Amino acid sequence: MSLAAEMIQLPVAEMPLPIRFRPPAPMSDEELFLFSARNEVVWIEREANGDIHIKPIPGTLVGAASGDVICDLSQWVEREGQGKLLAGAGFLLADGSMLGPRIALVSPEKWATLARREKDGFAPFAPEFVVEFNGPWDEPGEMEAKMRQWIANGVEVGWLIDLKEKAVTIYRPGDQPEHLARPTSVQGTGPIAGFELVMSRIWE
Length: 204
What we know:
Blueprint: H1 3-8, E1 19-21, H2 29-38, E2 42-46, E3 52-56, H3 60-80, E4 84-87, E5 91-92, E6 98-99, E7 103-106, H4 108-112, H5 116-119, E8 129-134, H6 142-152, E9 157-162, E10 167-171, E11 178-181, E12 185-187, E13 196-198
Parallel strand pairs: 8-9
Antiparallel strand pairs: 1-3, 2-3, 4-7, 5-6, 7-8, 9-10, 10-11, 12-13
């Protein structure tokens, strides 16, 4: 069995998580997809330098909040026809990384460019909008760095929601992050202009 095949078969769910490692040889996009499918009970991403970052799946609080955000966004997308909403999907970015946001919005134009085989794998572009959550498995500053990486790779607007602090930080290209402490609602801009997320359910 080749080294790449051995890596794909690696049962990471049996290891203490989270972990970060660098394969002896960089994983190709196809190998990374097979590795992720083999270990679907964990959250797997590839950094721009080739490191593989593996975390447990989200806990109950993040899962519940994600569901509430998706519900509200889905209603808005259906009403406004603003694109395709995705949850937990992977994106191959220009810097060589593969990142997966908790929630993403892809424009109708970008979605139309995807062939069926690409829809079965990782999309080869950045979404227009992402939502991420600070979770119990994240290291200090990790998610803030990830948000900056999203913006550097073409995301137009990103929201980082901190459930513990009840705060939302908004990221946009060319601007300093906008920090909202205990907001009652968050107003969408750019690709989600006109969307309003009421935070009362999120903070419960």
